[in-house]
Amino acid sequence: MLVQVGQAPFEAASVDNMRRLAEHSGAPGHIYPLALLCHDIMPPPLQVEKEIGEKRVISFHGAGLSIAPEIGFSEIAAACENPEEAKKAYAQVLYDSVTEQYNVLKSAIHGKRGLEASSPTVSLSQPWN
């Protein structure tokens, strides 16, 4: 699930739909919080054009990807009093994880801190080093 962080919290009903799809797919399904920072490489145009062939500016810029460990619904639900509360709590836990990862990536790339931007829960690395 890809979501632009910073706009609004995750909608609990949408997150629950994804969770239920994974649960009932017939194959093992997992939900991992993921943050991808690549906006500066090709940001959206200042205005939307209806014609095909709009001008897009591509630039060289750092990008980052962070994937946190899987967050299971059952652990969150066990601490809640009812199913609606569990859905909201699960969406919030996922959102908080993605937000934290995204903030670490922004600090590493935009704040030019590199691997030093790592936190106790988000450890950055460069696999080619």
UniProtKB/TrEMBL annotation:
Coiled-coil stretches noted in the UniProt entry, renumbered to this chain: none
Q: Which domain of life is it from?
A: Eukaryota
Q: Which GO terms describe its biological process?
A: phosphatidylglycerol biosynthetic process
* Annotated GO CC locations: chloroplast stroma
A molecular function (GO) term? glycerol-3-phosphate O-acyltransferase activity
- The protein's name is Glycerol-3-phosphate acyltransferase, chloroplastic
- Please report the organism this UniProt entry assigns to the protein: Hevea brasiliensis
